[in-house]
Design brief:
By secondary structure, the protein is α/β, with parallel strands linked by helices. It has 2 domains: 192 residues, Rossmann fold; 179 residues, Glycogen Phosphorylase B (Rossmann fold). A 7-stranded parallel β-sheet has the order 3-2-1-4-5-6-7, sandwiched between helices. The longest helix has 17 residues.
């Protein structure tokens, strides 16, 4: 068994996450970078390097989970390989704790690794952070329910990124474990507007048009077609451009809709971008009409760049976007209301500038310096048990 950690000791922390462009991978990576900056050693484990991770940073280590193809398997046994990797890293890097992001399959894999290590007289407590679709979408599949419920109940600590997600989890699963809410975060120091903002903006809006922006992974749940419908209504009232950042399964449908609406000439598709701060810095409004958002990290990133948000009122979005202050909230699918709210801001520069400042001030509350101590407190609590 390992020695207990004192408050001033540096920890050896394992982080398991998906490496993709989704919010859970971004949050896990940025959390690890912040922990490393405080002197803790952070070991990332994933099937490829997280796209925001710089492995040349001090105190950061990356352990690739390599899954070989075998003729016997239709699907490679990722969970088994990941569990083995966790055991290996825990033993040879002397991990103090494991933090897994996204319940499926990471919570159950963490439990498996924990039991294997117990047989070797090694204690590895683990924290599971719930990010959203692992509960609200995939987690609702009955075939996953028993495993998710068991692995969450066996987690030493559970966190969720919003009060809304906490309620959804308790409603969907019979969780006996306490769930602590630790919101997503940004590093506000990194959100500085471009010095040559006017020149950069002219590239996309040469005649001074207002700029609307949407960033997502273009899945159905993001309702990107609603973005185009809202933009079409706004475009009929004032000159404007729409910038789309991201890619995904709905891209073809979006291309067809812009042709149908005859708005393609005013829409700029930038595809996937590792860091959207530059393009956010020239936007006037951020549009997020999602079916569900457990938090809305992209909205927070927009607000940190002083971009008000036009969003739906679903999930955790009302915890991020304050109606009538940092932006406006509408019912899912109410494109008329979203367009009216957008025009209310875009036609009144004084009001728009006020919302921009409000958005930035509210985003400060989610700065990493305010959120990191909450995770560190949970880590210390975990290691004192």
């Amino acid at each position: 068994m390992k020695n207990k950690i004192n408050n001033n000791d540096f920890m050896n922390i394992g982080i398991v996450c998906f490496p993709t462009y989704g919010g859970s991978g971004v949050v896990a990576t940025e959390l690890g970078k912040a922990l490393a900056g405080k002197g803790h050693k952070v070991h990332f484990m994933s099937y490829s390097q997280p796209f925001r991770l710089n492995i040349f940073s001090e105190n950061i280590f990356y352990h690739e989970v390599s899954v070989n193809d075998y003729p016997l398997f239709d699907y490679p046994p990722y969970e088994s390989v990941l569990a083995s990797k966790i055991v290996d890293v825990a033993m040879y890097e002397h991990l103090d704790l494991l933090h897994v992001h996204y319940a499926i399959p990471h919570a159950s894999v963490a439990y498996t690794a924990q039991q294997i290590l117990k047989s070797k007289k090694i204690n590895l407590p683990y924290i599971t952070t719930l990010h959203g679709t692992d509960i609200t979408l995939v987690g609702r599949d009955p075939s996953f329910e028993p495993v998710i419920r068991f692995s969450l109940n066996c987690s030493n600590i559970i966190t969720s990124v919003s009060e809304s997600l906490k309620r959804d989890t308790l409603k969907t699963f019979k969780i006996d474990n306490k769930i602590s809410v630790v919101p997503n975060f940004i590093n506000i120091k990194e959100y500085d507007p471009l010095s040559d903002l006017c020149c950069y903006k002219k590239k996309y809006a040469p005649n001074g048009e207002k700029i609307l922006i949407h960033i997502s992974n273009f899945r159905k749940v993001k309702r990107v077609e609603d973005v185009l419908e809202v933009f079409n209504k706004v475009r009929k009232e004032i000159p404007c451009k729409l910038i789309l950042v991201g890619d995904g399964p709905e891209r073809a449908a979006i291309d067809l809709l812009c042709r149908k609406l005859q708005t393609c000439s005013d829409i700029i598709n930038l595809g996937k971008i590792n860091d959207p701060k530059e393009v956010l810095s020239i936007a006037d409004l951020f549009v997020l009409p999602s079916e569900t958002e457990s938090f809305g990290l992209s909205a927070l990133e927009a607000m940190a760049m002083k971009v008000p948000v036009i969003s739906t009122d679903t999930g955790g979005l009302p915890e991020v976007n304050i109606h009538g202050k940092t932006g406006f909230l509408s019912k899912v699918g109410d494109i008329n209301d979203m367009a009216v709210n957008a025009l209310k801001l875009l036609k009144n520069n004084k009001l728009l500038n006020s919302f921009k400042e409000n958005a930035f001030e509210h985003a400060k509350k989610f700065d990493i310096d305010n959120i990191l101590p909450q995770y560190l407190k949970l880590y210390r609590q975990l290691l004192k048990k």
